[in-house]
Write a structure and sequence with these properties.
Amino acid/polyamine transporter I; two-stranded antiparallel ribbon; 2 strands
Length: 441
């Protein structure tokens, strides 16, 4: 255990794992999906999917990781004893590399807008920072991956944990401050109503339910091995269900907080003359973050430059806390299974990811949306389904219980053990499969 590194404290793990889960998938993706799916109706279904589907899969990853004390590929191979585990783990590693490749492009945009807002505070106008140029995208994608690389090289306790315990509280403070400020502005009340009052007739729409499931999996970093690898760094004395619950609650809580910020901010923008509707629907996706909100900040005058700086700092921190966990997945494999030094493995993989990002940048219209859809809408849910199969059908139940008992000797008597094994074996695979089929058919 000590040779691999481990989290030195429970708080360190919770903040690191929550940081992995809390990324652009929460701060950007969740409000975007809320906007696309009619507001509060999506919030309701997201909460249902997060607790009923995402949390059980999260626990499967944490238990497998801590029990096998290794990376995703090796852990699943040990459980299956055959090539099925190796193939599944390899697909998970490939998926997380592709996610990091497109994620770093978007995170680079956040950094460029952060620097642009800082320049605006100084009354400078550098148009290149917000231009849609290949050079700008390459530069800031490389800068973001460089920051991620530096953190991961530091290892588990001196890199990932050390930075997570600093970045996560900062992120939380920034988002709360922005919520308070935005809520005082004209139009915010309309945004609060759109976010909190559900249209009950839309809650069970197939498209909305599929989006809610995909968002829950993406925002909790499930199916691609990030939580499994983090689980392998948890000390044996820790109570895994409690830790998993803490991570899920922090992730869901910050997603909801992000909605409390972004949706009211859109209606504040509307009150300031910014168009927030497209064909009767709230604008979402990149246009929301890089057109609607910057227009709002501009309408605020001089104060808007400071608000923009805080907002894009928030977005950059959220992106970084997730990217370090994504890079750690393949790094752990090269360190555990191939014997590479952490520094060499991290630099090698960072270079590889930057190469893939560059290909996407040079073929943006063709590849960006394709890679996003392939990984987040197809690969992640299917990998989550397969992890349920591993935890519920392939791995022996008494071995799972023995692992859980190391952190809680009385867990067999508790509600978690009475529900989770059956739930992850029968309910989760069926529901995930049905929801996935609704997405593709």
């Amino acid at each position: 255990m000590s040779a691999r590194g481990h989290f030195s404290s429970r708080l360190g793990f919770v903040l690191a794992a929550a940081g992995s889960a809390v990324g652009l998938g929460n701060i950007w993706g969740f409000p975007t999906k809320v906007a696309e799916n009619g507001g509060a109706a999506f919030v309701v279904m997201y909460l249902v999917m997060a607790f009923l589907l995402a949390y059980p899969v999260l626990m499967a990853e944490l238990i497998i990781g801590r029990a096998k004390q290794t990376n995703m590929i090796s852990a699943l191979q040990k459980i299956s004893g055959n090539v099925f585990g190796t193939v599944t783990g390899s697909i998970g590693a490939a998926t997380v590399i592709l996610i990091l490749a497109f994620y770093s492009i978007v995170a680079g945009w956040m950094i460029s807008y952060l620097i642009d807002s800082l320049a605006n505070v100084s009354t400078l106008n550098i148009a290149w920072l917000t231009s849609d140029s290949v050079l700008r995208n390459l530069f800031f994608t490389g800068l973001f991956l460089g920051l991620t690389c530096v953190v991961v090289i530091g290892g588990v306790s001196n890199g990932i944990e050390r930075w997570s315990v600093r970045l996560m509280p900062t992120l939380l403070i920034l988002i709360i401050l922005l919520i308070i400020y935005v809520s005082t502005l004209e139009g915010a009340a309309d945004g609060w109503r759109a976010f909190l009052v559900p249209d009950v007739s839309r809650v069970l729409e197939p498209a909305l339910m599929a989006d809610a499931m995909g968002q829950a999996f993406f925002s909790m970093s499930l199916g691609v091995g990030t939580m499994l690898v983090y689980g392998s760094y948890i000390q044996k004395r820790e109570n895994l269900p409690q830790l998993g619950t803490s991570v899920a609650l922090v992730d869901i809580g910050i997603a909801v907080l992000a909605g409390m910020l972004i949706i009211p901010a859109m209606y504040v923008a509307l009150a300031n003359g910014v168009e927030i509707f497209d064909d009767g629907k709230l604008i979402s996706g990149p246009n929301l973050i890089f057109k609607v909100l910057p227009s709002l900040f501009t309408s605020m005058g001089y104060a808007g430059a400071y608000v923009a700086f805080v907002f894009f700092l928030l977005m950059t921190i959220a992106a970084l806390t997730s990217s370090i966990s994504m890079l750690e997945v393949p790094v752990a494999y090269l360190v555990d299974s191939k014997g590479l030094k952490r520094k060499k493995a991290t630099i090698l993989l960072t270079t590889m990811v930057f190469g893939i990002s560059s290909i996407i940048i040079f073929n943006f219209d063709l590849l960006f949306g394709f890679v996003v859809t392939l990984t987040t809408e197809y690969s992640q849910p299917l990998l989550g389904l397969v992890l349920c199969v591993f935890a519920g059908w392939i791995w022996q139940r008494d071995q799972i219980l023995d692992e859980l008992k190391q952190g809680n000797k009385d867990i067999e008597k508790g509600l978690f053990w009475k529900i989770w094994p059956v739930y992850v074996k029968f309910v989760c695979p069926v529901v995930i499969a049905l929801m996935f089929l609704r997405t593709v058919l």
